[in-house]
# Entry
Amino acid sequence: MHLTVTLARLLNPVVWRRKQGVVTKLHRFALAEQASMVDMRQAARLTPSPARAAAYLRHADDEARHARMFARRAQELARTYQCQSPGDLRVDTEHLFETLGERDFLAFVHYGEARARRQFDTYIAWFARHGRDKDRALFETIIQDERRHESYTWELLVELANGEPGAHRAVKRVALWEAGRRWLRAGHGGAQWFYRLTTWLLYLTLIPLVPLVWLVRPQLRRWHPKPRALPAGEVHKKLQVQ
Amino acid sequence: MAAVLGISAHYHDAAAALVVDGEVVAAVQEERISRIKNDPSLPLRAVDACLAIAGMDPGALDQVVFYEQPFAKLERVMLQLVRTFPRSWRQFPRALASQLGVKIWVLDHLAEGIGVARAKVRCIGHHRSHAASAFYTSPFEHAAVLVVDGVGEHSSTSLWQGRGTELEAVSSIDFPHSLGLLYAALTAYLGFAVNEGEYKVMGLAAWGQPTRKDAFAKIITIHNDGSYELALEYFAHMTDTELGFGPVLEQLLGPRRPPDRPWDFSDPQDRAYADIAASLQHTLEEVLLGLARQARTWTGAPGLCLAGGVALNAVANARIARESGFESVFVHPAAGDAGGALGAAVIGSLECGDPRPPALQSAALGPAIAAARAYDLARELGLKCTRVDDPARVCARAIAAKKIIAYASGRLEWGPRALGQRSILADPTARKTRERINRAIKHREVFRPFAPAVLGEKMADFFVGTPDPMTPFMTRVAEVRPEAREQLAAVIHEDGTARLQTVERERAPALHGVLTELDKLGRPPVVLNTSQNGPGEPIVAGAEDALGFFLRHQVDCMLIEDLLIERPV
# Structure
């Protein structure tokens, strides 16, 4: 069994039972879909082929719709559960097309879509078992598109990689690249804690500077420097000269 | 003779602008290319776009000028962290990471990213860049320049005097007293996203009454010399970069509005929030008027230029033009941080001995749209597309037939407003049009108006007043004449005003053609003109974005230059 599926099955009861957890998870899906939409639009701009650009645009359109569906459901549940609102759909992107090049970009998208499809399958099964029809329907609708994305990206990848062996190699390459990225992200998370602790210690060393700053660099108020005001007559004269 | 690139980045709305031999050749916001709204990252894609427009290589650049002094900013941030000790404990790690990790190295990153020698990259002050963007592109020989934003290095408000090619600092007011941050705090309080929702607050204000002026008198003190001071206990922008206001503000104005609740003006609570927005708008206008009058007293200049994010408040701009005593007022179309890139480039160019650029005629300073690529793409997408002989006539007829048309022509606009290059155009007469655009595309709150574009020579038939340096760039509102209100039902705001754009042949020939054709058809030469983007998206730039927009949003048809794309009935 694939690791994604095992993990998803293990975590389903934890993730989907916590009210705030559900809202956060769905909002994260919305963010991921929105980021993917931006990536696909960038790809459409950058690919030299109008045919592939058209495919990327259709894909981007699907991702935008998915983002809206996830966000809407997250907001609905936040209202129902009276928990913290998930906020706006602000996105960031790593500019994957520019970073990886078109072939590896396609491999990455294909790999991601396949993983999402497997993950969504376990969610659908879990929601079905627990009678959560609305959430099941949401994922069932979206998974149709994920299957289509998985299949068209594979076809394009095979074309760009000059055959299936090349395509498989590209998928392995991006899987490794992604694993490296995950490792760095995990490291970043850990390093952040260490960084915060050390900077807070550093913060304490600012104490002697506090009175000094208040004394030497007081907060300035109002206009500075204060210019000399022109007499009213001079203003009038100047206006006439102009 | 020199080629100078100006850059703004690392706060919000990064941009690049290119001035060659004293002429503004290109100016592009990074968000338009990266497709990330208000993208603050180093604008290397925008730089590429500017260089491509000029047909230049990075090696041909004489200077790259960054719009802010990173070490002066670091000094202010550190001083502020110490001054607000120990309340700044949460912000300290983040501020340190952002300043020391990224921002102070910006000049090196630019040299490396663009591919120019480090010696060619320099920086100038944030407010000087803003002031330059407004003054040097204005039609004035002598003007006072008022810069009002959140904060630059130290200043949040500054006054300058421009004369010919000279730009002299007169005076300034320092952070943490800031009109931009006052507006941002109230934007967050009203449940909108900071740096994005400020327009919504301005729109909301028209639906309320300024009944909370007394409360705002406690929040901000206006002095006789035009300066102002915030009562800092109401704010948190010194210690919290995200929210901007503290619990004391909620004690004064009531609890903040939850962000996602739909607006309903039959609900007394929402009416109260609209009153708060109106009171904020009233206070802002009073402060800006005080600043402008003081600027006139100190400089004696006949013209006033406004820059900084606060200068995008079109309602306040109209009042300043009416009541400040200046003969004329100009607001740069990209008055926010993006505009600083253009100011930085012009200063660099003047220092190289080039002449001052001519007054800005048009905001179409970005890349042109490629109709041929759009044609190929539309065919691949299976869309019904045809080349038309007279796009202006086709567009006018579609508008007259009450269609909503996505219109892309020529070079992309500079600044937050779509001015007929990447617009959605529609008939301005029926309120139903507005509702349809909202339902199908924009999903805006009910209180947010749409704007009209009118033939410059016919402005007086529909609006009070005549064209001025602001109206071609949609940076002020005007009162709609009572007799024209029915004809402009879709673009009139609750208070009887509209944020209009006047269109002249020399400035926007394509849109002028559309309006002229409407006139010939016996219709008012006015269109509803709103930006071609969905909620949370940047305005479309290239052919791919335009087609993506067409797929995503239910406009009736799209015109890309002479390419007509129709939706099957």
Chain B touches chain A through 55 residues (CB under 8 Å).
